[in-house]
Design goal:
Layout: H1 2-23, H2 30-33, E1 36-37, E2 44-48, E3 51-56, E4 65-70, H3 78-83, H4 105-108
Amino acid sequence: MKLKRIVPAVVLAAAVVASSAACSSRRIDPEETGSSNVHGTSWEMFCDGPNAVFWVPGLSGDPDELEAYVYDHYKCAPQFYAEHPEMTQPIPSQPDTDGINDDNQEDDK
């Protein structure tokens, strides 16, 4: 009796796993998205509104891989940066006198 219940459950589980593997492949159309190559890398980039999506095309039938999603990227939101030029200035670095990367050392004492 138990075998009659186990076999359909195993077959159903195998079918679910097999179908989910096919759904996990991702294909990004470079022409449809307007992707451009990121110079010196294998990455591609396209704008999703003001945000940039960086991805790598799959090789030999592998799915394409999303690598990064950058909010308010300067290439995708040029009007914002034209209105706020201070946002394009580098952040001044703080000296690291002790070589320890911990800003809250005084709080830990």
